[in-house]
Predict the 3D structure of the following.
Amino acid sequence: LTGDQIPIGVKIVTLADSFDAMTTDRPYRRRRSLVEVIDDIRRNTGTQFSGDVVAAFCRAMLAEFDGKTTERRFLRLLGKDYIQPDTAAPMLTALADDLEREMLGAAAAAN
C-alpha cells in the first residue's frame, strides 16, 4: 500500500512506534537524543512517515512545550531531563511549518 491506501491509524501507529523505539533504552542500544529523533523523523517523512501525521505530532509536542496543554504526556513519557524545549521547539516548528507548506502547495497544485 502507498499514500492514501494506507489507513490513517496505521500511519499514526508507525510514527508512534518509531518514536518510542528511538526514545527508549534498549538492551542493544541507548535511546537517542530528542534532537537526533526529530532529525530522523524529518529525513524519513514522505517515505516512512506521513507528512500530515508528522506535522500533527510536532504541533502536539509544541503545544505541551508552550504550556497550551496541561496533560504533559511527552514529559511523563520521556522524563523532564530528556526534553530540551529550547533546542527541540525550533526544530519541531520548522518541520511542522515545512510540512504544512508542502501540503498546501500540493493541495493547490491538485486544484
The helical segments are 8-23, 34-44, 51-65, 73-78, 85-110. The CA atoms of residues 56 and 102 lie 14 Å apart. The two ends are 24 Å apart (CA to CA).
